[in-house]
Amino acid sequence: MAASRRFLPALLLAAALAVSSGCGKKGALIPPEALVPAPIATLATAQKGAEFQVSWTGPGKQEKGGKLEDLAGFLLYRRNVLPPAQDCEECPNAYKQLALVDLDLPEGARQVGSLWIYDDFDLKKGQTYQYKVRSYTKSGAQSKDSNKVRRTAVTPPLPPVLEAAGSPNEVTLNFVGLPPEQGTATGYNIYRSKKGEPMPLAPLNKAPLAGNTYQDKDVILGITYSYAVTSVATVDGQAVESASSNVTEAGLVLPD
C-alpha cells in the first residue's frame, strides 16, 4: 500500500503530460487575447447639417497580428462631456451604447468602401459629445476601445441654392448661400456623382471655394451628372458643413 502511494504522484504527472502533449505534435498554445480584433484607430467625426457623421474603418488583423477572418460587427458608444469639475470619463455609466452594427444586417449605419458611417442626429446645440467604438467577432470576442473623438454641436450654416448649366466644354455651377449664424463663412464644397448614383463623401475641391461659381471641365460627353453644394463655416476652429443644397443635373451639350 505504501509503495503504491509512492508511485501515485509520478503516475499523475505522466497523465498530465500526456494530456497536454496529445498523441501528435502540436504548436504553442494561443492566448485568448491574441484572437480578439485589433483596436480601431481611425474613428473620426464631422458635423454636416444638424448631424454628426461618425466614421471608422474595420480592423483587418487580430490584436497580435494574425489575419482577422470572423469580424461580426461594431459597438458604438457615446458620452456627454460635462464641465471639468463634473466630468468623469472613467465612471461606469459615462458611456452609453449608441448603436450595434451587425455586418449581416447593418441597420443604422452605412458602408462606403472600407468606411463605416453612423449618422448621429440626437444632438443638442452647445453639448460636447465623445465617441468610441469596439469591434467584435462571431464568437463574441471584443476589441479594446478605439481612439476617442469628441465634438461640440453648433448651429450649421444654411444650405446654399444651386443652379447648373451645360455647355460644349464644361458644366457651370452657380450657387449662393447666406452668412452663417455661428462662426465665420469659409466657402463652399462641390459634390458630383453620375446620375442615379449616391454622392461621394469627399467634395471635388480640395479646399472650400471662396467664389460663387465653379466650372467643371472634368466631364464626359453623353454622361449626365448630379451636383450638390454645401456651405462651409469655421466655428471654434473646426469646419462645419451645411446640409446639402438642392441637387441639380447637367452635362455637356453639343453646340447648335
UniProtKB/TrEMBL annotation:
The keyword Signal applies. PROSITE patterns: PROKAR_LIPOPROTEIN (PS51257). Residues 1-21 form the signal peptide. This is Fibronectin type III domain-containing protein. The lineage of its organism: Bacteria, Pseudomonadati, Thermodesulfobacteriota, Desulfuromonadia, Geobacterales. It comes from the Bacteria. Keywords: Signal.
